[in-house]
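Recap for those who missed Tuesday's class. We walked through two folding examples back to back. For each one, the amino acid string is listed first and its predicted C-alpha cells come directly after. Nothing is annotated here on purpose, so try labeling regions yourself before you check the end of the notes.
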Amino acid sequence: MEVSDTRGERTPAVRAVLPSHGGGGPQTVAPLMGHLAASMHVFAPTHPGWNGTTRPDSFASVADLAAGYLARLLDHGERDVVLVGSSIGGWIALEMAVRAAHDERCAGLIGAVVDIDGVGVVVEAEPVADFFALDARGLAEAAWHDPERGYMDPARFTDEQRAIQQANSRTMAVIAGPGMSDPTLLGRLGAVNVPTLVVWGESDRIVTPAYGRAVADAVPGARFVEIQAAGHLPHLEAPDATWAAIDPFLKLS
C-alpha cells in the first residue's frame, strides 16, 4: 500500500496528518490537503483501486484498508498522527482509531480524528443514500447544497475520465459494500480514545446531520459541528467555515 509524502524531508516537530478520500477519489480532498500542508506534514494516500491504482485481493474491505494504513504508519515510526477522512475516508479513519485503541503496538500512534460526513455506521431511521442507484444529477442533488456546483455532465467526460470513474465505482462497491456501512461499527466507536471532531454539511442527503450526530454521540467526548450551506463535501463547498471548525480543534487536540 502506497502512502506518499507531500512535504519532502520531514521536520520532527511538525505533526503528521493522514487525509483519507472518499469514493470520488483523491481530488475530492485536494483542498483539504493543501490547507493542512501549511502547518502539518501531510501523507497523501490514494486508496488501492482508485484513480488507476492496483487493488490487491488482500484489500477487499474498509477494515483491510484501515489495517494496512496502521501498519504503514507503524513502519514509518509515526506518533500522534491526525486522521482526517471524508465520506468513506471518514469510515476508514474511525476504523483505524478503533483498531488502534485495541492494539498495544499502536499506543500513541493516533493523536486525533476528524470525520467529515463519513459513512460507515448503521443508524436506525437514517439510512445511507443508495449511492450506486444515483445518476449524475441525483448524486449532485444528494451531495451538494448547491447541486449546480456539484453536477458533472457525463456527456462531457473524456473516455479516460469515464473509465476512471467507472473503475472507482467498482472499487467502492467492493471496499464499502452496497450499503456503505458496517453494522458493528457504531457499537465499537466507544473504544475510540483520542480527541474526535465530527464535521457535517447541513444539506448532506447522502448521510444526514442526524446520522452525523449519532456518530459523534457514540464516540466518547466527540464534538459535532454542522457547516451551513454545505453538503457531503463541506471542505469543497464551504471551505472557510470548514477550516474554522477544524483548525481550533487541531490546535487543542
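Example two. Treat it independently of the first, because the proteins are unrelated.
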Amino acid sequence: MISEKLVKGLVKQMNYEFYSAHSYLGMAAYCSAESLDGFANFFLVQAEEERYHAMKFYNFINDMGERAIVEGFPAPNNEFDSVLDVFEKGLQHEKEVTRRIYELADIALDEREHATMTFLKWFIEEQVEEEATFDNLIQKLKRIESDSNAFFMLDNELGKRTFVPEG
C-alpha cells in the first residue's frame, strides 16, 4: 500500500503529463500557423507521447489500488517568437517534468516503495532522452539560423517522426 503523499504526487504528475500533451498541441498549432508542417508534426507526436505517459501513470495508480483523479489545468502558452523559441520553451518544460519525476522518485525512495521506484525508473530514463532530443534540435536550429534550405530540410525531417508506443 502506498502512502497518501505518494498517491497525491502520482496523481499530480499524471495530470501534469496531460497538461504537457496540451502544451505540445499549442506548440504544434503555432508551427502549423507558420506553415511548418514538419515542426508541427514533431509536436503532435510529442503530444501523443505525453498522453501515453499520462496513461501510464493512470494505469499504475489504478493497479496499485488507488484512484486516479483527473483535474483541470491552465491554458498552455500559444504565443511564441520563433520556432527556436518553441523548442527552448519545450526544453524548459521537459526540465520541469524531470524535476517533478525526481521529486516523486525521492518520495518513493524515502518510503521504500519499491514498485513505485521501479515504475519511475522508466520515466527517469525517458527524461534523459526527452531533454537530449530538445537540446539537439535547439543546437541544430541555432546552427542553421540563417540557412533557409537547412531549416526546411529539418522541417521535412521532423515531418517523418511517428509515435510508436513501447511493447
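Answers for example two:
The chain is about 75% helix and 0% strand.
The mean pLDDT is 94.
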